[in-house]
């Protein structure tokens, strides 16, 4: 285990969040299995107390685990490359971590998305005294358990591999990827064109669809469709950041490294850029939960509608900031040089 203070802070937050989650999940299991709102006996009163305890502990758990995830991301992006021989950014850190590092990021992301969806549902349930969403929220909360466990296991494996890791080469990993893509340049160019065509017009389409659906719900465009659109747009936009927009920060071609964007040399732009993508995904999930609640529980239609509109405005704001941070430098380069980075006019 490495003795970097951020590692210990990460594990302290992770342990606190996991302990809170464990206690809350035990209460939530009782609620999900035995919830009987029409009964008023002692067992149901105890389950109602369990639901309140699970909600309070779940919020604390989500806060601790979110803080741990932010610290882990910050460590990969800014600090831990200094203790890995040959590493200059997060690419070198992940190279030292091996496949466990990528799996940890994936499972952390899924777990936090599920917890965020639960938190939105729990917040909507607070607006009605009957607790109509309690059993559904409990099941969603429990669903995050396997992903949290996998995130912890792979985080441990990844951080253990950093200690005494052999020398790595960030640039070699990046340029090997470029060379491998160059051997199939036609297909790669077609893929990038496809992601650009999805992300550029898709940003306007997603903003318009979320706004219209939030204020004028219809049976054709549901919250589920908005969530799928948000995830698809975020994935394509992330690919474009790596292969297209990052070049205007580095001012060189053939350096598809998203982790360098987090460095102070580039003003930490990666934090804001990828935070925008994260907000779009999370608010897309919130839109789905709120829309589903409004359609299935009429008593919560008003608070669900407000949450749906809030999600739409947050999606639009995130897309706007993302556009400024990506297309803005590209336009500035075009105005200064008269050409795009790929040489086209």
What is the number of E strands? 0
| Cα distance spanning the termini | 52 Å
Rg over CA atoms: 22 Å
Question: How does the overall form come out from the CA principal axes?
Answer: flat
Number of helices: 12
- Percent of residues in helical segments? over 70%
Query: What pattern of helices and strands is seen along the backbone?
Result: HHHHHHHHHHHH
What fraction of the residues are assigned to beta strands by DSSP?
under 5%
Q: How does the helix and strand content classify structurally? A: mainly alpha
Q: How many domains? A: 2
Q: What can be said about the biggest beta sheet? A: none
Unreliable segments (pLDDT under 50, ≥5 consecutive)?
Answer: none
Mean pLDDT across the residues is: 90
Report on this model:
There is one protein chain. The protein has 345 residues and is an all-alpha fold. The protein folds into two domains: 5-162; 170-337. 77% of the residues lie in helices and 0% in strands. Helix 1 (5-34) runs antiparallel to helix 2, helix 2 (42-79) crosses helix 3 and helix 3 (90-97) packs across helix 6. The chain is flat. The mean pLDDT is 90.
List keywords for this structure.
single chain; 345 residues; mainly alpha; 2 domains; 12 helices; flat
Quick overview of this protein structure:
The chain has 345 residues and is an all-alpha fold. The protein has 2 domains: 158 residues; 168 residues.
């Amino acid at each position: 285990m490495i003795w970097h203070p951020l590692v210990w802070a990460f594990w302290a937050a992770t342990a606190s969040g996991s302990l809170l989650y464990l206690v809350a999940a035990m209460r939530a299991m009782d609620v999900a299995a035995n919830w009987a709102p029409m009964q008023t006996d002692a067992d149901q009163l105890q389950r109602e107390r369990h639901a309140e305890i699970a909600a309070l502990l779940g919020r604390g758990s989500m806060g601790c685990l979110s803080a741990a995830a932010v610290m882990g991301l910050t460590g990969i992006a800014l600090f831990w490359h200094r203790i890995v021989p040959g590493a200059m950014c997060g690419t070198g850190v992940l190279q030292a971590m091996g496949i466990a590092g990528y799996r940890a990021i994936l499972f952390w992301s899924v777990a936090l998305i599920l917890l965020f969806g639960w938190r939105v549902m729990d917040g909507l349930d607070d607006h009605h005294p009957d607790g109509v969403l309690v059993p559904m929220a409990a099941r969603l909360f429990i669903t995050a358990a396997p992903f949290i466990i996998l995130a912890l296991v792979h985080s441990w494996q990844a951080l253990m591999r950093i200690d005494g890791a052999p020398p790595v080469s960030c640039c070699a990993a990046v340029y090997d990827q470029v060379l491998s893509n160059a051997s199939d340049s036609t297909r790669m160019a077609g893929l990038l064109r496809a992601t650009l065509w999805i992300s550029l017009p898709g940003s306007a389409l997603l903003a318009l669809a979320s706004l219209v659906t939030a204020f004028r719900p219809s049976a054709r465009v549901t919250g589920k469709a908005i969530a799928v659109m948000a995830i698809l747009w975020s994935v394509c936009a992330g690919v474009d950041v790596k292969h297209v927009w990052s070049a205007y920060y580095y001012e060189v071609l053939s350096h598809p490294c998203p982790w360098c964007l987090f460095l102070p040399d580039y003003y930490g732009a990666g934090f804001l850029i990828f935070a925008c993508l994260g907000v779009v995904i999370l608010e897309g999930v919130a839109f789905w939960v709120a829309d589903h609640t409004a359609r299935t529980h009429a008593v919560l239609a008003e608070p669900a509608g407000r949450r749906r509109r809030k999600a739409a405005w947050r999606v639009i704001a995130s897309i706007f900031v993302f556009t400024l941070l990506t297309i803005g430098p590209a336009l500035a380069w075009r105005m200064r040089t008269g050409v795009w980075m790929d040489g086209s006019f």
